[in-house]
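Lab notebook, bench 4. We co-purified these components, and the gel suggests they stay together. Before we commit to crystallization screens, I want a quick structural picture of the whole thing.
Request: model the full complex, all chains together.
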Amino acid sequence: MSPGDTPLLEARNVTKVYGNVNALAGVNFTLSGGEIVGLVGDNGAGKSTLVKTLCGAHSPSSGQILIDGAEVVFTSPKESREQGIEVVYQDLALANELSVTENIFLGREIRRGGFLGRLMTMDRKAMHDSARETLESLAIEIKDVETRCGMMSGGQRQAVAVARAIMWGSRILLLDEPTAALAVAESDKIAGLVSGVKEKGVGVILVSHNLPQVYELCDRVVVLLRGRVVTELHRGQYSIEDLVSWITGAAMHKTS
Amino acid sequence: MTDLNETGGVSGDSVSSVNAMSDETFESEQAKRSLEVERRIAQRRRFLQRAQQQGLALVLVAVFVIMWLSSPYFMNKDNLLTAASVVSILGIMAVTETLLVIAAEIDISIGGVMALVSVLVGLLVGDGLNVWLASGIAMLAAATVGLLNGVITVHFKINSLVTTLGTFSITTGLAYVFSGTTTVQIQGAGFGFLGNGSILGAPATVYFFVALWLLGAFVARQTTIGRHIYATGDNFEAADRSGIRPKRIRMWLFIVNSVVAGFAGLVVTSELASSAPQIGDPYLLAVITAVILGGASLTGGRGRLSGTLLAVAILGVVQNGFALLEYSSYLQNLVTGCLLILAVLVDQFVRRAER
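Here is the predicted assembly.
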């Protein structure tokens, strides 16, 4: 990111204290549109706490969160969604008994015009076509958008959840371990999807333990250790071994 | 049969497309194997879902033929209309109960609400009130019970089986206390039409049932509210995150269900031309049986009003046939119970097929 640009999302000196544990001890973090930033760290390093703080599930103990340079205060995930931040969880996202179209449009159904529309009647054809279009624009391969989500693979469901977020104008996508439960081939497809999302100008935060994938996908990697950002690594300027030694804390002993 | 299927919830036909994913898209052997497993699961599920729906139609045909052969009075226009009239009262309540079960809640207080409404009407008419005004007040009481069910279940997060068992006990208790267990005669002002009237040769109750069923099927299948009801029962968390307010949906379903039960109470009161605290007794088990037999899953998210319609018809034929053959009503309870357990087992098989 060039200096002077206002980042899409910024966390300034964010802390989170649970009792006498500093889960986040003053974290600074930025994300620009069209950027994929990896968030890595060992268990307990503060990744989940940071994600929850950014999406409004937790409020920070101190510090600021800014979107487009303006401070925002979220008291619930719903409020962060209204600002265009979408967290995609693997299992919580979809209603399995509903079709792909119905899931994508859940809560935002297209109604028919005129009298029938006032009776809350849905325009299934318009919804069908629109869902098709969105999935195609993201190169998500689902043969029939009227398929029930419960009948699809984990990767396809994840893809539908991402498509849903993109379709409704999310500008910031938080992917929390998106490929942890997926087969290798499916995991590769999600990686492709994330790259496609980036091209649409969406900022993506990828929380993952899959370091080769983080290495390949992310423009920048932020490493957390004991609630602090210990380093930021830029694409092409580090190796996976470097990443591992930063995550474990070994790199800090080397340099100091 | 086909047109009935379309009126319900999620279309079974869409399932077939899962198999259509092209094999080249998956490079690894592992992915291919899991695709193969999924295809087999999909096939099995499709089969079981069809078996559930068509099995219901088959049972209906079977009981119909058995009764036709067993009793010379069964296949008679007047008898069939009587049977339809009797079962319509149950059917009215089964429509809204189905929607409630799809939203992953249940209301077993309906029998108590019927009794309370009946007794209140008797009491108020006894005090000299107009019967329709009395009915209106009694319906308000029914709505209040629904509101109570909703608030306790939705806001205090109490299992609805427990909540409505409580309100069932309360409403039944109130009905007996208010009435002093006596029956009050109610007549005049055209009140008898609800239970005994007929339009173009068919009982009014059948029209009530058909109208409510059509409305319910329309809402479930065609409207956004219907989708939200399914989503609420299927994945509450996802429903909440998508901003559709699943709590409010459940709340309204409880209220509507109670109001409909109250209306059924009015119909029965009108039919008997008297109010009595016992009138709800035969309906509770029958309504729940119709809903479950019709394929609505107690875990929520799944169910069709077409299934409920078939199940109501089956119960109607069985009830009528048993009466014609002069079998004991206890035997009828036994058969209803067996059907209920069978239906729950089939539902369990269908769901296990997905795992």
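The first strand of chain B starts at residue 184 and ends at 185. Worth comparing against the SEC data before the next meeting. Chain B has 14 helices and four strands.
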